[in-house]
Specification:
The structure holds three protein chains of three kinds. Chain A is an alpha+beta fold. Chain A contains 19 helices and 32 strands. The two termini of chain A are about 50 Å apart. In chain C, strands 2-1-5-3-4 form a five-stranded mixed β-sheet, with helices on both faces. Helices cover about 35% and strands about 15% of the residues of chain C. The chains are: A alpha+beta, B alpha+beta, C alpha+beta. Chains in contact: A-B, A-C, B-C.
């Protein structure tokens, strides 16, 4: 689609080069660890070596003898301020520092405050903690058994490890279809615990001014406004008041959901700054980041689909156990304990579905976060896309064809899914057609047949996903009661240059560029003249932040609406300047002209100047607008991914030979940035599909607590991604855009898993768990008698 | 991650370094530091003194002399990768260097350090076992030469005495019609081996295997020399059966532990599969 | 605990410093010299966010002691180009969208700079191998490869 604006204006559809790049490329970014303040002290954290046990004693005396170590904070110290526990977003509670019990390995046990990071680290090594270990509960299924020890003894009356039960759909009607269906297939699968592992870890610099009672916190957060409110709510009793709290989220070195939660380290640093009256900085290291910060996924799913003999899918039934660690500290909308898992019916037109999730406590770190995903969409899509392939192999139908025969037809939109969603728009066949064409699907199937005859293992995997993004409409979505709108404030200066501030916070998505393009699209000001700011709660309008691909659907829409309000005012000014009535004006980006007399025109810049210098009588001066956008619905991006894998029969290694991703995220703001988001998402899809997994031994020891064992793909493992797109605008978003940041993370793992299963399907293999490690594949090859 | 406190010494001569090793409390020799510094940061090691041999002249020899390839203590993996003599005559060394850690680490990591560390997960030990290398250990009483087959005792345990520095590795120049290869299975770039197999072969005039050296990585508490596998090949025509027998003998020589890289059975089978592949690659290079 | 007087040349400027034995080079650069473009991303020498040039060779500065750099010429991202512009490689990263959050970018730039110095026309495979010690979580690497290719092309134009 050709852009509506000129290259000079650079509105939507232009691959504008990013405005944020020059500072990053010259080492002039401002990430959290780049901040220093006079008199700043350092916090480092003592962590539990055991997964579960009692704290018998904490002896800080040797630590305090180390030059530069000033204080050691324990749970008992925080208890005096009632800050030793904090609420989670899901109405659970989580320890800041323990007073008597540790619940997972690497849990925060004490904070050491020192004059340098080196002294703080020495202090941590010198704090002596005496533990009485207890046998941890690591398996969520065992945690639910009657004789399992109750972990949350802090909760009065708690008699088991069950957290909550969630369900969606009509169970009875679904069961009835299963009872009468021609074909039923079933797969049990685990989408394992993983970690976002942004290259920048988390940290903060808390600066409490005891004279003013004012707290400034520079911190790695994707949701600064929400953090400010949370701080005011949980620490009001120690004198923090929301008007005197400023949260600044500086440049963030990758978020992916991992920088949404409030971690104990932040709270300890803030508490230390408040107590000591000096700035305190906390920067976690990679092992702390991997071992203690919030995990993602960890859903054990048991999925079935019922179908007619010809492959027409009729119903879906999923039973899930969700391992939340010792606290439900999910970063999710409050009324959605299982996130948006009910998108699990995916791209297919089903009669009925029923999904249920039971959440369980174990001795693992609390969580979770979404890892580049809109709240459990990844788990839902993996489940459905895997079991659809199981059906295809069972009835002997090509997996792409089976999908096509079950797609929601494009005429059916807006489509009401059996689990309650209203899909805004879609053309699934178009994305499938394009993906098949790009990869040469039929030729690949021929090649596969030839190779199979020679004993070589090659697989083709298809995934046609539908996402649900942009949380969300206020009637359904809130966090701690705060509705999940987002906001923009646009101010045009007299010389026609603008500043635009948003309630979201980029972590690499390029908001400084794409938001400027949205304003440019609507106002006709060059995007180069629009300065975008986010992340400072003192200046930006209130918003819920950037995660779950919500920025474009919410704040992006708010930016467009604010710009339109300014344009409406500009039209009145233009009419005044041209001495005609508003109805007699034509608008094309950047210019109002008189209908029938195009040479009589004024620019948007002329209008801006007039807004401060030459107003129509009675008009309020200035040229600015604020919009709080409450989306009428969510958006439903979709796509089809197809990949080709080859399997080494000797080692079990899977190599992804080609990967084609066709995405439809509605109208595109910046094609270059959209493609970059897809590339990154795909790489965070191949990671969990083949490499990434956070595991524990039965004693609760983390087995992937550093980059030595938490395997982040390098440029060598990562294929040369091939991308394409179709455009099906969202009918309700002001720009027709849908959001794109997470589609690829969602769509890639099942495509890869399906390709591996496809390579082995003729041997009777129906499923392989992710991550698809070489040893896992080799065990299958050996069992099937085809290992080299 | 912050290292514990220690004292740092950068001697300008080998004698000075040896003197420091003899006089300092709890000294640890460092060359490239790419194994030692991560251990310090993780506080898995806490020597009182570090003796950095990186500034000692004359330890950077990488040349063929007197029937040996001499690799001095300060020769880095990158030096090895860029060496013409290595590429032409010791491709097994190039195979090995290229799969160690990543290119940035290899700019500082040394071959001798990789061997001296005594880590069975390191890659050069297997290759040196296959090549029948000699380790030169220099101590207060001068240099002694240790056959690499007698160098590794166990996890991080070697024949190097506490007052000695591994100053050089000597690799016998390859005979005519010989070739070698190192094949490593890793989970991703930069990973320690799931398993690795190094094979160095020389062929006799009749095409049979005149000599074979086979070393294995990360398949026991120490680097493994698979002598039974070597015997299974030596004197044989290297046909499919002989290769399979040698590969199986290599697998039988391993004592891996189950971990996140795989089960015992998987690793034993990988020893077999990788050894067969390394033999075939070595044969191809030997002109077999 | 012994301290050491060292001199390092960073981006052409000589600096004298008194350092503890254990001070990591990355902390000398970031904390003492206030060159915060060099980042820290892991503890185990895997991520490469801290990559700097040491006597022209890219190294992970979290795994070098500051005292080991005594006498060395160090290059950081801040020294790549003068105030009047960016190198072809920096330009390539912007043109080809080779960065998103920007955190791994300085390390990638230092590795890429050294690669192009030693191999002015690297293949895609050579570029991927060269940057395999630098982790990126945002870009999927494809555009980083293109950025290096862009710079190679641009630097080759003058030949």
């Amino acid at each position: 689609m050709a852009p509506k604006t000129s290259a000079k204006i650079c509105g939507m559809g232009h691959s504008m080069k990013r405005k944020e790049d020059p500072r990053f490329l010259q080492g002039k970014g401002n990430y959290i660890d780049d901040f220093t303040l006079p008199g700043m002290l350092w916090l480092d954290i003592v962590r539990s070596p055991i997964a579960y046990g009692k704290i018998k004693n904490i002896d800080s005396s040797k630590a305090l003898e180390i030059p530069g170590v000033l204080a050691v904070l324990t749970g008992k110290d925080l208890e005096a301020y009632n800050l030793h526990w904090m609420p989670t977003l899901m109405s659970d509670t989580q320890m800041v520092l323990p007073t008597d019990t540790v619940m997972y390995q690497a849990q925060e046990v004490a904070g050491v405050i020192a004059t340098s990071r080196y002294a703080a680290a020495d202090g941590v090594a010198a704090v002596e903690v005496e533990y009485e270990p207890m046998k941890p509960v690591m398996d969520p299924f065992k945690a639910l058994e009657d004789d399992a020890p109750v972990l949350r003894t802090d909760k009065e009356g708690k008699t088991d490890n069950h957290i909550w039960h969630w369900e969606a759909g009509d169970k009875e009607a679904t069961d009835k279809i299963f009872d009468e269906a021609d074909v039923v297939v079933r797969e049990k699968m685990h989408v394992p615990r993983i970690h976002v592992a942004s290259i920048e870890t988390c940290g903060c610099l808390a600066d409490f001014n005891p004279v003013e009672g004012h707290l400034t916190v520079y911190m790695t957060t994707q949701a600064p406004h929400a953090i400010r409110t949370v701080l005011a709510l949980v620490a009001g009793h120690v004198g923090l008041s929301e008007e005197k709290i400023r949260v600044v989220s500086p440049d963030i070195g990758g978020g992916f959901g991992g920088k949404v939660p409030v971690y104990p380290g932040y709270v300890i640093a803030i508490a230390a700054s408040v107590v000591l009256g000096t700035p305190v900085k906390w920067i976690e290291d990679r092992m702390e980041n991997l071992q203690a910060d919030s995990f993602a996924r960890d859903y054990h799913m048991d999925a079935e689909i019922a179908a007619n003999a010809d492959g027409r899918i009729r119903a879906l039934r999923i039973k899930t156990i969700a391992d939340h660690g010792y606290s439900d500290a999910q970063a999710a909308p409050s009324k959605w304990p299982a996130g948006l898992f009910s998108i699990c019916t995916g791209s297919y037109d089903l009669e009925q579905a029923y999904a249920e999730v039971d959440a369980v406590y174990t001795n693992k770190p609390p969580g979770g976060v979404a890892y580049r995903c809109s709240f459990r969409v990844t788990e839902a899509v993996h489940c459905m896309e895997r079991v659809v392939d199981t059906l295809a192999h069972k009835i002997g139908k090509d997996p792409a064809q089976l999908r096509e025969e079950n797609f929601i037809p494009k005429e059916a939109f807006p489509y009401h899914s059996p689990l309650g969603w209203e899909y805004d728009s879609g053309d699934y066949q178009a994305a499938m057609d394009k993906a098949k064409e790009m990869i040469g699907y039929d030729d690949l199937r021929r090649e596969q047949a030839e190779k199979r005859a020679r004993g070589e293992l090659m697989g083709i995997g298809v995934c046609s996903f539908t996402e649900v993004l942009g949380a969300g409409p206020s009637k359904d979505f809130d966090i701690l009661g705060i509705k999940m709108f987002d906001s923009a404030e646009v101010r045009v200066h007299p010389t026609g240059k603008a500043i635009a501030r948003f309630g979201t916070k980029s972590q690499g998505q390029g908001h400084e560029t794409t938001y400027a393009q949205i304003i440019a699209e609507e106002l006709g000001l060059p995007a180069a003249h629009v300065q975008v700011e986010e992340g400072d709660t003192d200046t930006a309008p209130y918003g819920l932040g950037t995660y779950a691909s919500r920025s474009t659907p919410t704040a992006g829409a708010a930016g467009a609406m604010a710009a339109r309000a300014i344009r409406d005012k500009a039209a009145k000014i233009a009419a005044h300047l041209l001495e005609v009535s508003e109805e007699d004006l034509d608008w094309e980006p950047g210019t109002f002209s008189v209908k029938g007399a195009p040479d009589k025109s004024v620019s948007i810049q002329d209008c801006a100047f007039a807004a401060y210098t030459n107003l129509p009588p009675g008009m309020e001066p200035g040229m600015e607008a604020t919009n709080y956008y409450d989306p009428p619905n969510l958006t439903f991006p979709f796509g089809t991914y197809i990949c080709v894998v080859d399997i080494d029969r000797g080692t079990g290694e899977v190599s992804v030979r080609r990967f084609v991703a066709v995405d439809d995220c509605g109208n595109i703001i910046n094609p270059m940035i959209v493609q970059g988001q897809i590339h990154g998402g795909l790489t965070q899809g191949i990671g969990p599909a083949l490499y990434e997994e956070m595991t524990y031994d039965e004693d609760g020891n983390n087995q992937a607590g550093s980059f030595m064992d938490y395997l982040v793909p390098t440029a060598v493992e990562t294929p040369a991604w091939e991308t394409g797109h179709t455009v099906t605008p969202s009918p309700h978003h002001p720009l027709g855009a849908k959001g794109v940041g997470e589609s690829a993370t969602v769509g890639a793992p099942p495509a890869i898993a399906n390709a591996v299963v496809d390579a082995l399907a003729h041997l009777g293999v129906t499923h392989v768990e992710i991550p698809i490690r070489p040893d896992r594949v080799w065990e299958i090859l050996r069992e099937k008698g085809v290992a080299e | 991650m912050i290292p514990p406190q220690f004292d740092y010494h950068a001697p300008g001569t080998l004698d000075e370094a040896l003197g420091l090793l003899g006089s300092l409390d709890d000294p640890k020799v460092m060359s490239g530091g790419q194994s030692l510094l991560p251990m310090l940061k993780l506080r898995l090691a806490s020597p009182a003194n570090i003796v950095d041999i990186g500034r000692i002249p004359g330890l950077d020899t990488l040349a063929e002399e007197d029937g040996f390839l001499r690799i001095g203590a300060l020769v880095t993996e990158t030096d090895l990768e860029q060496s013409e003599v290595v590429a032409e005559r010791y491709p097994i060394l190039l195979d090995t260097a290229k799969v160690i850690a990543d290119p940035l680490v290899r700019n500082r990591a040394t071959i001798c350090g990789n061997v001296a560390h005594g880590d069975p997960a390191n890659d050069h030990p297997a290759t040196m076992l296959a090549l029948g290398a000699q380790v030169v250990a220099t101590g207060p009483d001068g240099a002694r030469t240790i056959d690499v087959g007698e160098f590794f005792f166990g996890l991080f345990m070697t024949a190097l005495a506490e007052d000695e520095i591994l100053t050089e590795i000597r690799i016998p120049a390859p005979a005519a019609r010989s070739g070698g290869a190192y094949v490593k299975l890793e989970r991703k770039v930069g990973d320690y081996a799931v398993a690795g197999s190094a094979v160095q072969l020389a062929l006799a005039g009749d095409g049979t295997v005149a000599s074979a050296g086979i070393g294995l990585t990360n398949l026991g508490i120490a680097p493994i020399r698979a002598t039974a596998a070597e015997d299974a090949l030596t004197g044989q025509a290297p046909d499919d059966d002989a290769i399979a027998a040698a590969a199986q003998a290599a697998a039988d020589a391993t004592e891996p532990i189950a971990d996140r890289r795989g089960s015992v059975e998987y690793k034993k089978n990988m020893a077999r599969v990788l050894t067969a592949r390394a033999i075939r690659k070595a044969l191809a290079r030997a002109g077999g | 605990m012994a301290t050491h007087q060292i001199t390092v040349t960073v981006n052409g400027a000589a600096h004298a410093a008194t350092v503890d034995s254990r001070l990591l080079l990355v902390h000398l650069i970031r904390d003492d010299l206030a060159l915060t473009g060099t980042h820290i991303g892991c503890d185990t020498t895997h991520c490469g966010a801290c990559t700097v040039l040491m006597d022209g060779v890219p190294v992970k500065s979290c795994t070098v002691l500051a005292v080991q750099a005594d006498g060395a010429e160090l290059g950081t991202v801040e020294g790549l180009a003068g105030a009047d512009g960016m190198t072809p490689l920096q330009e390539g990263f912007q043109e080809e969208h080779g960065l998103q959050c920007g955190f791994c970018t300085p390390g990638m730039l230092m590795t890429g700079t050294a690669l192009l110095e030693s191999n002015p026309n690297p293949s895609e495979a050579e570029i991927r191998e060269a940057i395999s010690g630098n982790l990126c979580r945002c870009t999927g690497y494809v555009n980083i490869v293109k950025a290096v290719e862009y710079a190679a092309g641009k630097m080759g134009e003058g030949d």
